[in-house]
Amino acid sequence: MGASRSGNSGSSILPILTITNLVFTGFLLFAPGSILLILQPANLQYNRRKSMYDNDSKGFSYKAGFFMLIAFAVAGLIAASLVSMQVWQLMTGTPFTEMQEGMLNPANAGAMKVIQSLNAVLGFLVPTLAVAALIHKKPLTLLGFRGKIRPEQVGLAIVIVAAALLFSSSLSEITRMIPIPASWQLEFEKMESDYTRQVAAIVSLKNMGDYLLAIVVMAFLPALCEEAIFRGGLQNFLARGTNSPWLAIILVSLLFSLAHVSFYGFLSRFMLGVVLGALYHYSGRLWLSVLAHFINNAAALTALYVATRQGKSMEEAMTEGPGSLWGLLAIPLLVALFYSYRRLSSRSLTRPW
Hints:
By secondary structure, the protein is mostly helical. Helices cover 73% and strands 0% of the residues. It is globular and about 55 Å long. 48% of the residues are buried.
């Protein structure tokens, strides 16, 4: 979930909601990516030719794939928006122009879940699969959906994301300490308040059935679709095209955080993006980063479910609990865990970049 008023910032259990946010993210991706690739020295481009193609390439470079994916994602989000209009009107009986206010009404939670799912699948997953199929003969392998995963990798990925959650609370607290103008603070607080109201309206956790449905729609589906485009697509293509995997990880993690449009959750989401990016880069297996992202989302939903079962309102559950700097102690643990994860993964993985 987004950063709370107390400073906590768990997972983003509410995926990027609006077409405006996502199209904005597409242009954010396009601008720095263009500058990065255009300014790359010609001799480096020549020396890295082998990393831009492989035996299963269909003739498109990974740089081209990077920009194609951005264009396809924007088109997919526009299509999802058009479909969402019809879904909203059919399920709520109100015009789409009233959606901004209507999404705060718990009675429309079902419609919003369907719309979120459409945005995730049509805006993220389908464009990624389409571009991968256009540029590569083995699209699922290219993205990292196929390939052997060792049980030890799964175990380490789970422990890594658990340590990252501890670190996340400290980053939220540090963000709260950053001095900003009072007018900015008021605006950021309003954004967080609006986010909390949206989650409270959409996430219905009245019983175990609601909880299990939320786990699928609000935890697993966003994890799958967001990891597909951000890690399997954008990070993957940019790393191969520039031969600079960590530059790709940092840039895509930055954009991953910006896409959620939250000041108080920015550092936490950026850190999460780096962790997920590293899990993917070292293993080449997208399911490991999907698993970590899912655990992050599911942990937040579970905490909300437990709190609401104890009689607390959704708003109270999302805004209680102070952040703690003790989470900084997780840094050396994360370093040690990633060292083990990298060594374990490198035994059975040969990278083209």
